[in-house]
Amino acid sequence: MGHVATSIDGMELVYERPRTLTDTPMHYCPGCGHGVVHRLLMEVVQEMGIQEKTVGVAPVGCSVFAYNYMDIDMQEAAHGRASAVATGIKRILPDRFVFSYQGDGDLAAIGTAETIHTVNRGENILVVFINNAIYGMTGGQMAPTTLLGMVTSTTPLGRDAAVMGFPLKMTELVAQLPGAYYVTRQSVHTATAVRKLKKAIRNSLEYQKRNKGTCFIEVVSNCPSGWKMTPKESNDWLEKNMFPLYPPGDLKVPRD
Known about the structure:
Blueprint: E1 6-8, E2 11-13, H1 34-48, E3 54-58, E4 73-76, H2 82-92, E5 97-103, H3 104-110, H4 112-120, E6 126-131, E7 134-135, E8 141-142, H5 161-164, H6 170-175, E9 180-187, H7 191-209, E10 214-220, H8 224-227, H9 231-245, E11 249-252
Parallel strand pairs: 3-4, 3-5, 5-6, 6-10, 9-10
Antiparallel strand pairs: 1-2, 7-8, 9-11
Helix pairs in contact: 1-7, 3-4
């Protein structure tokens, strides 16, 4: 289908906020990736016409306020338990499109067990995993995904594997589980990356409609405030330092 231009006062309209986002100013720090991911999720929900049938689950962390911005049914969950709550919702209401929206401090730390077993059972939900390698809300502490040598408020000399262990690559772990149907790692630091993530979200919800199993999307994101950088610096740092350990791309793609 060709592009249909819409004009306002003689100017072409190239972007319009999706109606599935509430008319509420977001609280996220300038340059943070959360707002972009929110927008993409709601654009897909609007384009699929499933606003009344979509349920999001947000736990503790920077993602906890997602229910202020997404004009869909939202359920808050205890720290780390979003995938378990999403499982219950999907089992009770199997016709709903259900997703959890979780950060690395939530999904890869206190929620590791829930995440692994949700995917291992092949629960028919979408898990959206925002990985910025730090605890963004509570003061910039080390997260399970923090890079070796990375300075945080609790690793002022850098993360040391001998003391703190190695960064946890959750997406590689869940990709090995038979219940995982579609597993991918994306980002939102460029326009091209944003388009790829939107396609991944759309694919995931289409697979959910076909009852295929768990879809898991990691979004490698930045945290300008926690990293003590400008948004531009944080995006450059992300490409140089995060991508070597967390490379974007599909880890498990459907074969049917």
